[in-house]
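Box 3.1 A note on notation
Throughout this textbook, protein chains are presented in two layers. The first layer is the amino acid sequence; the second is a token string describing backbone geometry. Keep the layers aligned when reading.
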Amino acid sequence: MECHTVQESQFLKGKDFYFFILDKTESRSGLHEHDYYEFTLILNGICSQIINGKRVDLARGDFVFIPVGSNHQTYYDYGVTRILNMGIGKRYFDQHYLSLLPSCFVASQRYSVTGSFLNYIESTLATLNAYPGEFDEFNKLLTYYIVNRLCHYDNAQEQSEVPGWLTLLVRQMHNKALFAEKALENMVRLSGKTQSYLTRATNRYYQKTPGQLINEIRINYARQQLETTNFSVTDIAFDAGFSSPGLFINHFKKITSVTPGHYRRRLVNQIL
């Protein structure tokens, strides 16, 4: 497969950073590499990247860091995935961050941010549009955090790669027929494991319970409905599998830092 190079001048245009929040269902860039640095953080949903020939599966809170010259391509096979994508100019990165990169760094590795920092990112994103001057400081802080995570990555502490059966199970659970009703029962049945075994596995590999994973999948679906339909919040809540609108709103705000109504209004304002 042909690999093309994306030039820094196309995206950064003389700036030190570019920054996007994107809801993606496909990648139009194909197999490519950069002459600048980049990282992609998953805010909601799941996707995979092929980095230097190795497949890396990513879910909420996971990120990959792509150094200059690493070829990669993203696949969105299971619906909308919300990503935070950051590019950093080579000269700026080399000057401020390169010395922090570990000598054993591998591009085709899945890393994760902590839950508390992910909440900080999402709460900050909810207000940055009101304070555009803060973007630069946010870019610097986020990049430093990401590089610091790379630097302190410890293979001895990191759990082994997610087993294939669990990766497949999480992908299957993005099917609305499975998560809308009796989701936990469906998840246990599909896994072929006991509920206690499944819970231990999701806690070990995702640091989440099966119920938390299900709620994240439901919220990802609800976001799509808020963005693409005029259905009421109540209708979306029940359609996504929540037992009440109040429970839906609580989970939505916990994951996205805003209420469903605020999320939809902000989207409308961005379009206008």
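The mean pLDDT is 85. Residues 38 and 87 are 4 Å apart (CA to CA).
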